[in-house]
Design a protein that fits this description.
The complex is a heterodimer. Chain A is mostly beta strands. Chain A is built from no helices and twelve strands. In chain A, the strands form three sheets. In chain A, strands 2, 5, 6, 10, 11 and 12 form a six-stranded mixed sheet that branches. The radius of gyration of chain A is 14 Å and the shape is globular. Chain B is mostly beta strands. In chain B, the strands form two sheets. In chain B, strands 2, 4, 5, 6, 9, 10 and 11 form a seven-stranded mixed sheet that branches. In chain B, strands 1-3-8-7 form a four-stranded antiparallel sheet, with no helix packed on it. Chain B is globular, with a radius of gyration of 13 Å. Classes of the chains: A mainly beta, B mainly beta. Chains A and B meet through strand 5 and strand 6 of A and strand 5 and strand 10 of B.
């Protein structure tokens, strides 16, 4: 069975600084990987996904993530953070088998300081 | 295109009352998921459906919770009797095709408060 770990519960970044949120997964085969963002009072919104191919994937809102098989990681990055990026971020992993559900990490809360 | 629609957005009720949460998935999506989110437990998967059939309800307390999907465009999550520990935000999500490798699309949630 697959699992996801987001090691950082809370991160604070200055506006304009770069951001990296960590995600480690456990799965025996090639995983399907996702990053979601949740703003206060809202549902989860898909930022980007990795299925296969290029290990660097681009998403919405200027985010990108890199799949590193050797490190079992799928870290989310943004070169310059805006105050509106303050939210909770979830990493999720899925299996190729039909009938299975995504497994979500516990989330990382991002605060942006001015 | 309309996203996942949940109702009500907020519900406040007294302990012991029956609560019904509703969800309309994105048209054409054949997977539907119910989650519960709390500060302490984070995001928990309660139950999910494929083509209206329950695939896994192991995360759902069976004594008081029940979930149904009578047709492809509607699902309910019912709590009876409700307890204060059920206070949480409940999310519905839907996805297309094989659930494990497709992104899930979330509704805005129902914030439930049990007094």
């Amino acid at each position: 069975a697959q699992s996801v770990t987001q090691p950082d519960i809370h991160i604070t970044v200055s506006e304009g600084a770069s951001l990296e949120l960590r995600c480690n997964y456990s799965y025996g085969a090639t995983p399907y990987l996702f990053w979601y963002v949740q703003s206060p009072g809202q549902g989860l919104q898909l930022l980007l996904k990795y299925f296969s191919g290029d290990t660097l994937v681009q998403g919405i809102k200027g985010f990108e993530a890199e799949f590193k098989r050797s490190q079992s990681s799928f870290n989310l990055r943004k070169p310059s953070v805006h105050w509106s990026d303050a939210a909770e971020y979830f990493c999720a992993v899925g299996a190729w088998q039909a009938g299975t559900a995504l497994i979500f990490g516990k989330g990382t809360t991002l605060s942006v300081s001015s | 295109d309309a996203g996942v629609i949940q109702s009500p957005r907020h519900e406040v009720t007294e302990m012991g009352q029956e609560v019904t949460l509703r969800c309309k998935p994105i048209s054409g999506h054949d997977y539907l998921f119910w989650y519960r989110q709390t500060m302490m437990q984070g995001l928990e998967l309660l139950v999910y459906f494929n083509n209206k059939a329950v695939m896994d309800d192991s995360g759902m307390p069976k004594d008081r919770f029940s979930a149904k999907m009578p047709n492809a465009s509607f699902s309910t999550l019912k709590i009876q009797p409700s307890e204060p520990r059920d206070s949480a935000v409940y999310f519905c999500a839907s996805s297309l095709g094989q659930g494990g490798n497709q992104p899930q699309h979330f509704g805005d949630g129902t914030r439930l408060s049990i007094l």
